[in-house]
Amino acid sequence: MKTIGLTGGMGSGKSYIGAIFKLMKIPIYDSDFHAKRLMIESEEVRNQIISLLGSEAYNADQTLNREFVASQIFNDNKKLTQINEIVHPAVRKDFSEFAAAHTDSSYVINEAALFVENGTYQDFDYLITVVAPMQTRLRRLKLRDKKPEKEILKRITQQSSDRDKILKSHFVIYNDELQDLFQQITAIHQAVGK
Fold this sequence. Notes:
It is a single chain. This protein has ten helices and five strands; from the N terminus they run βαβααααβαβαααβα. By secondary structure, the chain is of the alpha/beta class. It has two domains: 1-13 and 105-187, 3-Layer(aba) Sandwich (Rossmann fold), CATH 3.40.50; 28-101, Rossmann fold (3-Layer(aba) Sandwich), CATH 3.40.50.300. It starts with a strand and ends with a helix. One of its GO terms (cellular component) is cytoplasm. Keywords: ATP-binding, Coenzyme A biosynthesis, Cytoplasm, Kinase, Nucleotide-binding, Transferase. It is an enzyme of class 2 (transferase).
């Protein structure tokens, strides 16, 4: 069975593309969702985060204090690196278990924004990058996240450029509202599903 990384910058449409693959009965692992889940459910991960950021990282009900954590890691590159060093190995292990549970499929997809940044793109048989124009991404992110444009742009600049991602990719999906997404996805499915 093949493993495929699905990546792209914030607001590029990764999750939407993943949902289309899911409709095609391809198992999709959402790394962001599972990272958040593991930050709550994994005692080991939770304890390491508390050691790094303090008990304020979690609310009284043991849920992640997302605003506090974001304020800590997005203003301090060292802390961002450290939290990634805690969470990413747990997510990689969890994905391996997910893939092992789906051997009946010809491939599984792992969706995340940071495969190029953290070097894990090399762990996959194929890498797909989703790209979209910056104005489209900003519009989507403002609607989704309800954050000021300045904050959104700051987070976007912490990710690799589309160019860097494309150079490491086997396939690129242009999600610019002009290209036919289904045609692009079907071509990739036929190429890797053999």
